[in-house]
Amino acid sequence: MEKLKERLDMFSDAVIAIIITIMVLELPMPQHDSLAEYLQFGKAIGIFFISFCFVANIWYQHSILYNDAETMNNHVFILEFIFLAFLSLTPTFTKLITVDTNRHTVMAYGILTFIVNGPVYACQLFSYSPKIQ
């Protein structure tokens, strides 16, 4: 099971790297040489950096959890894939905010961050370390 734990950790790292790559590729490039387009591009870069910091923090917290985990069980695998599925929505919600920043898109992004952060911080709060069975 130790090898399986390492493989899951590497898979999670790869998914997170792909998420960050997708976010940077989704940045809208200015189409015309106008101040409004460059301001929109600057706003998109700012939103990208916020999402980048969010994903980087999740990666850091995730790596701390994996370092503390001695073993894994089937429940951890299922929760890990659910976690990665929600985290994989980050580029979509980042683009949504970039294209149309309003209270609904910001609220949707906030709900996504709550869903993704919830299990990570709950594990740290209760000092939960997954065990292999």
Mean of residue pLDDT values: 86
Distance between the termini: 9 Å
Count of individual helical segments = 5
Low-confidence stretches: none
Order of helices and strands: HHHHH
Largest sheet: none
Radius of gyration: 17 Å
Q: Helix- and strand-based class?
A: mainly alpha
Structure summary, number of beta strands: 0
In helices, the fraction of residues equals: over 70%
Hey, roughly how much beta strand do the residues contain? under 5%
Shape: elongated
Fold blueprint:
Blueprint: H1 2-25, H2 35-68, H3 74-87, H4 90-99, H5 103-125
Describe the structure.
- The mean pLDDT is 86.
- 17% of the residues are buried.
- The chain is built from 5 helices and no strands.
- α2 (35-68) packs antiparallel against α4 (90-99), α2 runs parallel beside α5 (103-125) and α3 packs antiparallel against α5 (103-125).
- With 133 residues, it is mainly alpha-helical.
Give a concise summary.
The chain has helices at about 1-25, 35-70, 75-85, 90-100, 105-125.
Main attributes of the structure:
133 residues, 5 helices, mainly alpha
